[in-house]
Predict the 3D structure of the following.
Amino acid sequence: MATGIIKMVKANYLIACLVLLLTFNIVRSQNIVDQFPVFKVGEKITYSAVYNWGFIWINAGIVEFKVSNTNYKGKEVYHFNSYGYSVPSYDWLFKVRDYFQSYAQKNNLAPLFFDRNTYEGGFTVHNQFTFDYKDSLIYSKTENSDRPYKEDTLKLQQNIYDVISGVYYIRNLDFDKYKINDTIPIRMIIDNEIFDLYVRYLGKEVLKTHDKRKFNTIKFSALLIEGTIFSGGEDLYVWVSDDLNRIPILVEAKILIGSVKATLTDTENLKFPFTSEIKVESD
């Protein structure tokens, strides 16, 4: 049984460590909060990625998100960075060093350039996407351990995000504009493919995390594609802080055996007071 659990964790570590990166990509909407953007330069958010099956919890890795300014083709833009890495005690079993970055326009967070460079247990992936809004094209460069280097040109569809710029865009949605069970379409580009999915607004909920913190949150689910990891359907759930920061507190994805979770552990340089956390009286 233990061997089976380890195999499942190894096979799905990317999901455990980067589930946040693959689920928050949403089309542009007019329902933007008045405080756009809800983040500021210098913000840093850290998550712990774990595998959970019944009473078994395996701390697998750390995920970090950072916001900075940079210059891209003579224009000041946001530079979003995300790092995912296995904890040292896990490296011997399945070493992970994942890096994602995205340059995005400041007025609407539309992506300009995306880069993914990941190493997971010996499997490498390197993807780059350049978004050309003048000619409505995406220039891609992709390769991984199973596929050789390839350059391609895709049609730039409207309202498309990469997996990093989308994380920041969804935080700016005004969920008060939606009713429970409303669906919101998703368009994302991953590994040189464009996907149209959706998320479903599930209302507000008081959330207690595994480390016994409590938060007022906004909850929604996401449609997943059936495959070797997921059975398909709305098996991914996200709880976002119900305050002006709109920070993901917990992301949980059900897989074929157990679930993977990314839980907020630390924040730095938030734009607004972190008022969603509920103080828990100690015994």
Summary: DSSP finds four helices and 15 strands in the chain. Residues 55 and 96 are 25 Å apart (CA to CA). Confidence is low (pLDDT under 50) at residues 1-30, 225-234.
